[in-house]
């Protein structure tokens, strides 16, 4: 029997009013300019730069290409210290660019790379640190910067989850030599499919522009590049959604508070937000007491039509094509974490329904459904 998709998905793509998007498409049809760094791409890059405290922004076809371009732009050829707790693209991009990933374990509060373990992993072949802001929680950017300066290393952040987070009064995406973004349809801010590189170095931004544009401008060929550009259609989506980002974050913050209230008293752990951080509420992860409990809860939610994802699992130091050193903290968290449904237009009633399933899982005598709650939840389109 074919398995039906969950009625309540882990993520859901936010869409702008159709007429607003069509308004931008009308401009595209009038200009006939679909790609090759068109006017809407330039407009979105400028608006993103303003949103990110004046940083240089180069849009790309997706977040994975952004990672590859970052490694190439910094001329990395040796070892890159990285995290085992991230989406596979983080490690795959290092391998794709023929560099050597060196895994350093994560710390137990934010699940980001543990800066206190960095120096022990540095060798004469180390050229860079590539760390992920997990679930939008910031890495220890100050400690990483200090270590990188001491050893002459480059710093790349995988900021796929971090759009909208601020730390120490500054956009999180502006730290490091480069930060890569994913603007995939499931992200807080998206362009349908897409990504970006963010830097405060104008010369580096120019190099990235060349790298993503086949390495030439007109008939002047500067370096070997690739096609990493995005389209006017994707930029139009981003221009519609960027002004709505503060509202998206506010809605997610309210849902985050509701989840925490509904799940109070249960044996669940949560990441800890560092001081001086304005969070973007990108995801809602919960850490269960053990892996068996996490898997059973995922099944219990699925039987009620609720999707939950083991994100991230497995750890990247256990990839079959690249086995790294053991990372006990990351392996422990990866086995026990579940991301619950979380997006701006998730209804409060749906959060309550999900919470009742979880409460009943831990307290079997507790009814999953209240007397006035229907046994079938309203269907939500899958993301």
TrEMBL record:
InterPro entries, A to Z: DegT/StrS_aminotransferase, PyrdxlP-dep_Trfase, PyrdxlP-dep_Trfase_major
Protein name in the entry: DegT/DnrJ/EryC1/StrS family aminotransferase
Lineage: Bacteria, Pseudomonadati, Bacteroidota, Cytophagia, Cytophagales
Residue intervals passing through the bilayer: none
Keywords: Aminotransferase, Pyridoxal phosphate, Transferase
PANTHER family reported in the protein's UniProt record: PROTEIN RV3402C, TRANSAMINASE
CDD domains found in the cross-reference section: AHBA_syn
Keyword Zinc: no
